[in-house]
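Entry for the shared binder. Reason: the reviewer on the internal report wants the predicted structure included alongside the sequence.
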Amino acid sequence: KITESETDDKPTVTEDIAKTIGQDKPPDALDQALSGLPPRWKNWVIRGIFTWLMIGGFGLIIYGGPLALMITVFLVQVKCFAEIINIGYAVYKMDNLPWFRSLSWYFLVASNYFFYGESLVEQFGVLINNVDFLPFLVRYHRLISFSMYIIGFVWFVLSLVKKYYLRQFSLFAWTHVALLCVVTQSYLIIQNMFQGLIWLIMPVMMVIINDIMAY
């Protein structure tokens, strides 16, 4: 016989999960404006609009130069991380447990600081030398990165709640896997971009063309 206490610490999947992590649907305003069209033609119009939006948006970002591309990569990284973490929250129902949402974002900040701290010194050396406190952060970068992770780990241990250890450790591992997949890839994308913008523009153009041709 399974008691209620034995099921408290197990992940559950309900109908509310889809609402929590979002649905693939057009904006309501666009959906209402095209309500008079047949479903097939409405789909064509929506795909056509977003095709040109993607092409135009990407063209504007390229026109903005390397810094605009770096900011775009970073924003995509943050959005991807948020989506992955939201899936974990939805499955494990972590809303009532303390500090876990804050912990996930803290580890994102700590991992970004570790990856980008030393690698961007060569690219922004002039800026760093002109600001008083930045050379200190560069000099003790690894010590600060290690300290930030230890603080996050201690914070996680202090947030543990009895009867929910399995859920909390599962989402703790989920957070680290998300960081490994998302932050590492964005770091490597930016490193490739420093070797030439073609290494970012070409793959992104292939993805955009693939999405267009898929419809």
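Summary line for the report: Confidence is low (pLDDT under 50) at residues 1-7.
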